[in-house]
Amino acid sequence: MTSTAHAGKATQRRVAFATVIGTTVEWYDFFIYATAAGLVFSQLFFEPAGQEIALLISFASVGLSFLFRPLGAFLAGHYGDKIGRRAMLVLTLALMGASTTLIGVLPTFETAGLWAPIMLLLLRILQGISAGGEWGGAVLMAVEHAPENGRGRAGSYPQVGVPLGMLLASGTMALMTGVISPGEQFLEWGWRIPFLVSIVLIAVGYFVRRSVDESPVFEEINEQKAQTAVPILVLFKKHWPLVIIAALVFAGNNAAGYMTTGGFFQAYTTDPKGPVGLERTDVLVAVSFGAAVWLIITLVAGFLADKIGRKRTYQLGFIILAASLFPVFALVNSGSLVLLYVAFGVFSIGLGLTYGPQAALYSELFPASVRFSGVSISYAIGAIVGGAFAPTIAQALVQATGGTTAVAVYLLIVVAIAFTAVSMIRDRSGIDLSFRNQAEQEVGALVFDKRRADAVKATQDA
């Protein structure tokens, strides 16, 4: 296998389609919960706590799953580096689908008492474990099958699954609240349908993913019987600075993104006692528009990452995201539905530019033998630091200050940290990702790492 070896075009198309379908299904499930948490779960599962506390608990339940994403990342990373990328993809997809479908048949607090929120939280934890393991497998399948000069574009395909999942989730919810089960019907039974629909999507995603070949990089590792015994231990012993810096990069995008994907904007703009007071369906359609813009910009960012590099694309995205924060909140607070569309559209530009290059950037950071563990765990930790409790923090800041200025400041700080972190990474676009090039992959990922690959190889040989 040479540095230019890669899958044929037919295989690349199958992989691209499979990773888009799979991540769309996975994140549809994940975001359906977050959307429902902002709209109805506080009333159905946490109402005895009182309106404000119930909403905080509901948002906290969104963040709860993030605490278990590292567990999913550890498990999937360990076995993904030992038995393959594809097996982990199918397993995590099935786990997410089962958890989501079961949420759709849960009894509420009114009929089951405390057991209702307990069961809800347990299923949300299973969603978190699944989400923690799914992403790493999807992006490695896409990137490791791709040619060296097309990894940014290929890596953007599984990334597109996130805004597609959000688009599908918000669109389905809008259909339920505005057409099929408006008003009290949505509270009574309509919210369940989007969860139950997941079982159909899971069947499609499972079928598609089973038809995709294993990653060529893992096949090389498997042929040489070179699997690392405990990849996670090697990762943290030799590459812990990469994990921390990569996690901080993602934290900036994730904290901002979870204003919509975590349900904060939906709850804030539809609160009848709040300053905006828009209708649920109108806001959900606006969120869908924002997700569509996010999707397009994510694809654009993938192409841009191949043209100007992953690092520059990220830096551009974080600058745009930081510059847009205060204007976006001003537009949201205007109470105008048209300006809400503008706000979500502008916000999504920075989100897409700081999400599209992520798969390629992460894949090129870590050596082949621990790559699944590296990308999965960095992603999971970044999600905890950035998005896990961002909606809860935002809601608490609004309740404490009576406005959204503090929320914008909070996001600006996180984005500034992420910009600093990505500036510490050396762009390694086009590096040979094969196992035989492990010595070069071991060094030089950070700008202050001056080690040379030949010196590392000599040490290893000795």
TrEMBL record:
CDD domains the record matches: MFS_ShiA_like (cd17369)
Cell location: Cell membrane
Protein name: MFS family arabinose efflux permease
Superkingdom field: Bacteria
Its membrane topology: Multi-pass membrane protein
Major facilitator superfamily (MFS) profile domain residues: 15-428
InterPro entries: MFS (IPR011701), MFS_dom (IPR020846), MFS_trans_sf (IPR036259), Sugar_transporter_CS (IPR005829)
Keywords, ordered alphabetically: Cell membrane, Membrane, Transmembrane, Transmembrane helix, Transport
Regions crossing the membrane: 15-41, 53-76, 88-109, 164-183, 189-208, 242-265, 285-304, 316-332, 338-356, 377-398, 404-425
Lineage, uppermost ranks: Bacteria, Bacillati, Actinomycetota, Actinomycetes, Micrococcales
Pfam families assigned to the protein according to its UniProt record, in alphabetical order: MFS_1
